[in-house]
Amino acid sequence: QELRPKSLDIRQEELGDMVEKEMASTSEAIEDAVRRIEEMMSQARNESSGVKLEVNERILNSCTDLMKAIRLLVTTSTNLQKEIVESGRGAATTQEFYAKNSRWTEGLISASKAVGWGATQLVESADRVVLHTGKYEELIVCSHEIAASTAQLVAASKVKAEKSSRNLARLQECSRNVNEMAANVVASTKSGQEQIEEKDTMDFSGMSLIKLKKEEMETQVKVLELEKRLEGERVRLGELRKQHYVLAGGCEDTPEDGEARPAPAPRRGILKKPPIAQKP
Predict the structure, then answer these.
(1) Does the reported pTM lie above 0.70?
(2) What string of H, E and C letters represents the secondary structure of the chain?
(3) Where the protein is mainly located, per its record (predicted)?
(4) pLDDT, tens only, 71-102
(5) Domain coordinates in residue numbering, the chain
């Protein structure tokens, strides 16, 4: 008791209540996230169409699947946590068990908060993407954060759980499922972003004749600039290759005493000029 940090003595009797409250709060956050995604889905169907509606539906469906996976993860984690307390507390009360294992308890609370926070941030990012006020990259980052916080929750639970525990095996399976669903969110977000950007870049239906001509001239200028730059890089590549062959040949012909010897006369047809990359 004397060796334990004094900061842990503050309100230790409330740690047990904090765990239960935090797990319940995380579950509520997940339920609220699912409801908000359903509302966004309905709003997207009313306010968008075509490619944008297809992209929004695909992203929101993947977010819904991720939320369901997180909800199952939290439920399984709660069951495992109760199992750990029941098997480890002995004659002590639940509050005394949490106080005795305060480090583990605080880690469990922190991990649960991280999962709930990640779910909330994901929904807010999805809302902004659907409303075209956010960035697709935000969704990708949130998905990575959820995967990381899930790993944190599993690690915190695994410390005290029995290796043969069925709830631990279920929790690990839930964690893999969450990671898979998070990867699906990333994939649907990236493909949706490419679809939207391609549509926006290639949609010329609303342009006037003058605007089209101006865009055409600007594109021609860019093409000429890129072709000139490409030609310069091809010449540079050819010169680099020639110099590389010269240096490589010089190194092979240098004797051990360091004195350069005249290279033997090459046979006709053997030594050829290195090929220079040509335009396709």
Answers:
(1) no
(2) CCCCCHHHHCCHHHHHHHHHHHHHHHHHHHHHHHHHHHHHHHHHHHHCCHHHHHHHHHHHHHHHHHHHHHHHHHHHHHHHHHHHHHHHCCCCCHHHHHHHCHHHHHHHHHHHHHHHHHHHHHHHHHHHHHCCCCCHHHHHHHHHHHHHHHHHHHHHHHCCCCCCCHHHHHHHHHHHHHHHHHHHHHHHHHHHHHHHHHHHHHCCCCCCHHHHHHHHHHHHHHHHHHHHHHHHHHHHHHHHHHHHHHHHHHHHHCCCCCCCCCCCCCCCCCCCCCCCCCCC
(3) cytoplasm
(4) 898 888 888 888 888 887 665 677 777 778 77
(5) 14-194
